[in-house]
Amino acid sequence: xxxRLAVFGATGDLSARYLLPALAALRAAGHLxxxxxxxxxxxxxxxxxxxxxxVAGRLDRHGASWPADARKAIVACTRYxxxxxxxxxxxxxxxxxxxxxxxxLALPPAVxxxxxxxxxxxxxxPGSRIVLEKPFGEDLDGAVELNRLxxxxxxxxxxxxxxxxxxxxxxxxxxxxxVANRVLAPIWNSIHIAEVEIVWDESxxxxxxxxxxxxxxxxxxxxxxxxxxxxxxxxMEPPISLDERELRDRKVDVLxxxxxxxxxxxxxxxxxxxxxxxxxxxxxxPAYTDEEGVDPGHHTETFAEVELELDSxxxxxxxxxxxxxxxLGHDRKExxxxxxxxxxxxxxxxxxxxxxxxxxGLEPEGLTMDLMGIGSRAQTLVPLTLTARMDPPGLPxxxxxxxxxxxxxxxxxxxxxxxxxxxxxxxxxxxxxSKDLVPLQEYPAGSDGPVPPRRDAPCSA
Length: 461
Ligand code: NDP
Fold this sequence. Notes:
Layout: E1 4-8, H1 13-28, E2 37-42, H2 48-62, H3 68-76, E3 78-82, H4 88-95, E4 102-105, H5 112-122, E5 129-132, H6 140-153, E6 159-161, H7 169-180, E7 193-201, H8 210-213, H9 217-235, H10 244-257, H11 263-269, E8 270-276, E9 278-280, E10 283-285, E11 303-309, E12 319-325, E13 332-339, E14 357-362, E15 365-374, E16 381-388, H12 397-407, H13 416-434, E17 440-444
Parallel strand pairs: 1-2, 1-4, 2-3, 4-5, 5-6, 7-12, 8-17
Antiparallel strand pairs: 7-13, 8-11, 9-10, 11-12, 13-14, 14-15, 15-16
Helix pairs in contact: 1-2, 1-3, 1-12, 2-3, 4-5, 5-6, 6-13, 9-10, 10-13, 11-13
Bound molecules: NADPH dihydro-nicotinamide-adenine-dinucleotide phosphate.
């Protein structure tokens, strides 16, 4: 276990809302002892006192569910250094100390290459680890280059490419349920499953995050990482163990089996859109282009949808639809598995039959099955819904992420080749979108998203 954590970008949103509360959760659960030291780096010219005051305030706001003594212990073990990640002397002062250090880059993705280069120039103590947030690179070439820089810095086992969805118990439940249940395991294939929707629709709009989001957009922020990781868990061959190599090998198999899209496919099988002014409940929401800090010239999408197929014996014939949007009328965060109809129904009203749908709730957690039951005189079909709730997770996702980093368990982080394969899947989409082959639609904030185009519409490419 490593006892030193250095966070660059510590004055940012991720640090305030997730990393600091996660550390309080780890302290409360007894995972962080008195040896633990936290060094935070930011570009603000603050002293330690002022920064600790800021940390205490963020913990009161975002980590209030953790005990006060755990929060106080995190504040007490924190020191602050002013550092720009491009300045070797400032970076050296952050990582200085005894023994290996875990270096967390909670930075905008565009800054990762410069940060890794500086760390290389400064040098890390033996046994150190490096943690990078998503998206890993800004495109395939960027990911390849970043992997090359990292390989010069530390061994691959010491690189943690974070996708915190993998650490969510609800996400792990998708894999657990399908491989550990006799009822599901034999029907988990294209013979029985027609379509899988992997959806992260949120009613939150930009919420002041233009600095990060504008120019990145929904495809790179959500689909390229979180939703493709979910696709891997839904579609992977049952792993023989949950060790790091086996899990990540099986995920890469899925990414490699994605049928390559052409730009022409991208026109028919992808959608992008951004929100215009509207209301979510009683809250007025400005158009995305009127949000503070947004450059309309970036044509950033706040909604992305991609339809994929896998060329594999198990999945040939099943459609996988990945979709995420902001400022929508309702939160819908789930994996919905739609089964094929039964071959024959002995009922008069069989036209009313709906396909069975198994829904894995990602947030809030839960398992739901929409299916058909028999009505009162056994001659009619009625829709039924079965619901199950799960126990709340012991640790928040970022608590698990940080614990894995400190312990050196990389099973729930993304390997370098996986990150590159994920970009490879979406490169034709990025290319088609950059050439405007797919129109940037609009949808009112608070709506269900853009109206789907007619599927028989002629292709323009
Ligand atoms: P923010 O823009 O809020 O914070 C970025 C931080 O990086 C700021 O502290 C900023 O300092 C610092 N920074 C920027 N450039 C430099 C530099 N050259 N040297 C030193 N520090 C620098 O972004 P987020 O915290 O939201 O996101 C950080 C990362 O986490 C991103 O990769 C994002 O994708 C990922 N992430 C964020 C989530 C979230 O909900 N916020 C969720 C999941 C992942 P300054 O203020 O001085 O510019």
